[in-house]
């Protein structure tokens, strides 16, 4: 299975926002059907990048002039470095100074089927005969290596040159309008608008508030259309009074976005069950639209070979996903959300605005021809719209009053007009809510992560699975940041401050502001269950770092921590300081919970309970550290410069802050021995403590054999005010 080495060598994960995924999944026997993406990239020079799935990565080609629908036009395509599969959904502005710096949109995305054997073989022999099923590129296309048919060895300087061209079929056209179709199929933005998407979002918000008349967003129940059938005339059909749109066979749904959280609920479902996991491409597209919060109504459709919406095909897709075949189902039956109405945007409820104003704003939110696209209006009056629908093979029309509000006033209700008797609308069976929708597919389990131990990624996944019951209570509901080692402990690594764009629909996240970069909001993971934990582990995560606050109250600190760093000292000295700290905590009425750092030091955590700001927590932990150093100046120092510490233990109190983190209990550490940050009983905090005894291999057995020493941590509710007062008394007496 290929790994895009050159891709990683050209990029620094600390400075670029591009994905460094580990989702390679190569197919046994080669790739016959896969995904493709075309990026429009405004780098040093504007160009297109074609990427097709092969061998678990994306084989990539820079196409300077872009695709052309005219079969007589053959475009140069330069074979570049392979990209990770996560690049299928990458759309962002690559920061200047990085390789390929500049904005990049997903110009097209879809499925590719290889006609002459696996793509891996075609790349070797220099010919790919393909069928694209995308939003813009459809039908047969070819990539042919230059010089392939010349019967002579390829010159080294020409080895990367291919030709990319359309083959003659029903989708070919000598009138090529590719350049005019310049919007992203995810966000609907043009490449030049990506850098100013914040301004676009602000403009849409301003429009929403102006037409809403100041009304705040509220729950707006779906009102079903009034059913009619066989109408030859439509009473009151005044010119331009009504709008006519096809009523497509599909799943009628409401889609709501709040930051990275996207839910999709079927109209009329009394349980309000979230079906977003069945439609991951719609979740990704909703996250890409230029508004952080909105609710819209529409129909989820998939199309048959004739280009008509197919409810049976949509139902078959859902059945495949329930069986755990999500990747295949989304490739074979991609879906589109045909948006029909905008209910709210950026906190403004739009129900009081007329339908035509809501629709105009919806057209700006979901511009283009992507995964979310606005329904098409048929030209009126009624007879003309009805006749056109018949000619297109459409059986039903939705008829709306252009001035209708939500809910509509009497006489302005939406009508569903059908040919002949009103048909029964079939339902899509989405199976059990606990079906295979949250399954985490493990990739590359055989990859070696800890060479000295011969420990693979599969063993890391197994470790986190085995300790999840003990670990999750300490991270549940708290933001976490993770450090990814996609090539193992000795490979390139990077902090994942922001969640990746391709994360599953069910993955929960939380937005926060970094103290050091408040102008750049970040979004972290919430690891609330086993699937979430396994998902991040599959990204190549080794250590997990947890915040000292809850996602619901980011400004409130519910524990403080002291880190005894023994890099230049001895562990027995850290043990003596931890025991001294325990005595101080006992004296002021706080509990202390020790754990190994997972490397060479010790941590002691003191829970505060709910409702305490970081100013209080910082003052508390700072005095604790100073009192400890005052009592044991021979062993402890708070000097931050290592050269000035000497052989003393560094008492680190700076890990308490709104975005300060500490390695989580039971988290692995990225060291050759694969050690773990292990919770301890106070009886285990003694001079012969060996942190290396707690590792990938030993901790699962310990977890199974005993109760977690930190089991009562979250239940603590001390009198913090009294503890602060007592600590102040101790500090005053010491000075």
Helix and strand arrangement:
Layout: H1 5-9, E1 33-42, E2 46-54, E3 57-63, E4 75-79, E5 92-94, E6 102-114, H2 119-125, E7 127-134, E8 138-145, E9 161-166, H3 197-212, E10 226-229, E11 242-246, E12 251-258, E13 261-266, H4 280-288, E14 293-301, H5 311-322, H6 326-332, E15 336-345, E16 348-349, H7 355-365, E17 372-374, H8 382-391, E18 396-401, E19 415-418, E20 448-450, E21 455-456, H9 457-471, E22 479-484, E23 494-496, E24 509-512, E25 522-526, H10 530-538, E26 541-547, E27 559-565, H11 571-588, E28 593-596, E29 602-607, H12 614-631, E30 636-637, E31 649-652, E32 661-663, H13 699-705, H14 720-734
Structure explained in plain terms:
The chain is of the alpha+beta class and 735 residues long. It has 3 domains: 5-182, no CATH class; 192-230 and 239-418, 2-Layer Sandwich (D-amino Acid Aminotransferase, Chain A, domain 1); 448-734, DNA primase, PRIM domain, CATH 3.90.920.10. Helix content is 22%, strand content 25%. The chain has 14 helices and 32 strands. The strands form 6 sheets. An 8-stranded antiparallel barrel has the order 1-2-3-4-9-8-7-6. Strands 12, 13, 14, 15, 16 and 17 form a 6-stranded mixed beta sheet that branches. Strand 7 (127-134) and strand 8 (138-145) form a beta hairpin. Helix 9 packs parallel to helix 13 and helix 11 packs across helix 14. The longest helix has 18 residues, at 571-588. The radius of gyration is 30 Å and the shape is globular.
